[in-house]
Specification:
With about 300 residues, the protein is an alpha/beta fold. The chain contains 10 helices and 13 strands.
Length: about 300
């Protein structure tokens, strides 16, 4: 039987994943592109359209769902995304609808991840939760009473750009002290050079050329003291932030999504510890911190596709 399919696209600061999804959440095709190699949204659209699998299933595709940093659900645009090479306001919905001649829905990438988590992941039975995406940047998808919170202009839920350290690190958005500058993969790497520690001298991290966030967590698992300090510092910053964020929507759970969340070292438990340690008493021990059980790429693609379904 020929099934209706949706093209789900997840645009990230490092990579772009896309796939064909049916209403049961089955992925028929997946592919990935390097964000920095694509000069414009028009080029991205043309590249996806030229994919042979997309061409083979063209008649079955009934719509397109896109999750993107600073994606505006109401206008179908990407607006001033600090972690993307495409600057200014990008009319993404218009570009894809003109090329594919299919209805297209755009939302924030973290909102797409939250939808994927709600439909297919650990948030299936939750009506009040927040997905925190920990990748090149930090995003958040806020679900309250079973509905995504968009705000009046489509930009609600930018928890990554809530300032957690007064006059702290310079963020890609141009302000100082944002959570993203500390709890993202790029923030973890910055901690290698910017965090003061006596353990730094003997750390294996200082001997790695161009270390990544994965290197930090890998070395921490091996017992490197400085790497362990960075993991703990990152968890403390994030846990403190979640304690404050709870005051907004009183979620039942925060769902950590992305590479950092999957990096072991008891990271999720550390975040939960610091959250509860700093939680307002009326919320203490009422909020869970969960790790997404969905593969990072699939969850966002599934969530993006669910915008259409």
């Amino acid at each position: 039987m020929i099934k209706d399919l949706v093209l789900g696209i997840d645009i990230g600061g490092t990579g772009i994943e896309y796939g064909l999804v049916d209403s049961d959440g089955q992925l028929y095709h997946e592919s990935e592109l390097v964000t920095a190699s694509i000069s414009s949204a028009n080029e991205l659209c043309d590249l996806i359209l030229s994919d042979k699998k997309i061409q083979d299933h063209r008649s079955q595709i009934k719509g397109i769902g896109i999750g993107a940093p600073n994606g505006n659900y109401y206008l179908g645009t990407i607006e001033y995304a600090p972690n993307l090479p495409w600057k200014g306001v990008i009319p993404l919905k218009a570009i894809f609808e003109e090329t594919f001649q299919l209805p297209t829905v755009v939302t924030n990438d973290a909102n797409a991840a939250a939808l994927g988590e709600k439909i297919f992941g650990v948030a299936k039975d939750l009506d009040d939760f927040v997905t925190i995406t920990l990748g090149t940047g930090v995003g958040s998808g806020v679900v309250s009473s079973g509905k995504l919170v968009y705000g009046h202009d489509g930009f609600a839920g930018e928890y990554g750009h809530i300032r957690v350290i007064p006059e702290g690190r310079l963020c890609g958005c141009g302000r100082k002290g944002c959570l993203e500058a500390y709890a993202s993969s790029t923030g973890v790497v910055r901690s290698i050079t910017e965090l003061d520690s006596e353990a730094k001298t003997d750390s294996s991290l200082t001997k790695i050329t161009s270390p990544t966030a994965k290197d930090v967590f890998d070395q921490a698992q091996k017992g490197d003291r400085f790497a362990c300090e960075i993991v703990d510092y990152t968890a403390r910053i994030l846990g403190n932030a979640l304690a404050d964020f709870t005051c907004f929507s009183s979620p039942k759970a925060f769902v950590l999504f992305g590479g950092i969340a999957q990096s072991h070292c008891d990271f999720t438990e550390k975040v939960k510890h610091y959250m509860n340690e700093n939680m307002l008493v009326i919320y203490k021990d009422k909020v869970s911190v969960l790790t997404s059980v969905l593969h990072e790429k699939n969850a966002a693609v599934l969530g993006a596709a669910s915008l259409v379904f």
